[in-house]
Fold 4-hydroxy-3-methylbut-2-en-1-yl diphosphate synthase (flavodoxin).
Amino acid sequence: MSSNNPQRRASVGVKVGPVQVGGGAPIVVQSMTNTDTADVEASVKQVLELYRTGSELVRLTVDRDESARAIPEIRERLAKLGFDVPLVGDFHFNGHTLLTKYPECAEALAKYRINPGNVGKGSKRDAQFAQMIEFACRYDKPVRIGVNWGSLDQAVLTRLMDQNRELAQPRELVEVQQDAVITSAIESAEQAVELGLPKDHIILSCKMSGVQELISVYERLATRCDYALHLGLTEAGMGSKGIVASTAALSVLLQQGIGDTIRISLTPEPGGARTQEVIVAQQILQTMGLRSFTPMVISCPGCGRTTSDYFQRLAQEIQGYLQNKMPEWRGKYKGVEDMHVAVMGCVVNGPGESKNANLGISLPGTGESPVAPVYEDGEKTVTLKGDNIAAEFQAIVERYVESHYAPH
C-alpha cells in the first residue's frame, strides 16, 4: 500500500473466518453468488469462480429451508476441494426461523448479514433481531448489519420525521432519510452489543443507489462510529454505468480512509460472468494504490499514428495472459502482483512509458519502422520483429517473473 494513502478509520478489526476486516488490515474484496443456493453444484462452482478471481468473502442467499440445508454441504464440498472460502449468509425476513431450524447452517457460515429494515415488523422486530444475534453469540460469528435505502426500517424513519416536524427550521426530507439510514445502523449495532455481541464482531453498511447520497451517508457514518465499514453502491446498474457509478462513489470514500471491505453490485449482462464485479473491485483498489492483485498493464489509447489495431490486440493478449498466469504466480512468486507492464503503440510516449515500467514494449505506429524495442527496468534489451511479437514478448515476461521475484 502506498505510504501516501490516508489512515483507515476503523481501528476495530473483525475476523471473518481466516480474513480480517478493519483494524488496519488491507481492504477486503467480497462478492455474492446469483445461483439458487439450494443448487449445491452450481453454487459451489460459482463460489470457486469468484474465489479464484480474488473474492475473499463470498455471500450466498439463505432465503428458505432448502438453501439453509444446502449451506453445510456447500461448505463441506469446498473444504474437500481444499478451499477455505469464508461464506456469508444473506438473511432477510426469516433469518431467525432458518437459523433456529438449521443450526448446522448457523455453524457453517463465517458471517451473517442482517437487514434491520426487514428482520421483523412492529413488536416482532426486536425479538427476531435478538434471536439472530443470539445465534451469532452462540457460534461466535460476526454480523454485518446492513441497512439499505430501499428497505429502510420505517419505524426509525417515522420517528425522525416526527422529530423533524417539531424543529423551528425543519430539515429537507432527503437529509432526514439519510439520517434514518445511519441511525438504523448505529442503533442496531448498539442493540447487538447490549445483547452480548462484541464490538469486534460487527460490521456496518448503509447502502444507497445514488453516488452523492452514498458519499454523504458514509462520511457522516464514519464520524459517528468506529465499527468496520462495508462499502458498496447498491443497485449500481449494468455495464459501464454500474462500473463508473461504483468507482466514482467508492473512490471518494476510500481516498478519505473510509471503508474496510467493498463489493461492486453490478447487474450482470445476460450470460455475463459474475466474476466481473470482483475484477472491478480489485481494479478500483489497485489503481488507487491501496492494494495489488495482478500486474498492471499500461497502454495508450491510440490515435492517428496507430491506425493498425495490432497494439490494441497485443495489449488485450498481454492483459489476459497476466490474469491467467496469476493463480499460478501468486502461489510461487512474492510481489509479482506489483509488476507494471507497458504496451505502447508508437514512438511519442512509447519508449518513455516502457522505460518507466518493469517491462515495456513500444510498438511501431503508422509509417514507422516495423520494429518493437523491449525495455526491462528502464534498459533496452531486445528489439522484436516479425509475426511472433506477442508470443516472444510473453516469453520475456515469463523469464522476467522467474528471475526477478523471489519464490514463496
Remarks:
- Residues 1-8 have pLDDT under 50 and may be disordered.
- Residues 310-332 form the longest helix (23 residues).
- Residues 182 and 221 are 6 Å apart (CA to CA).
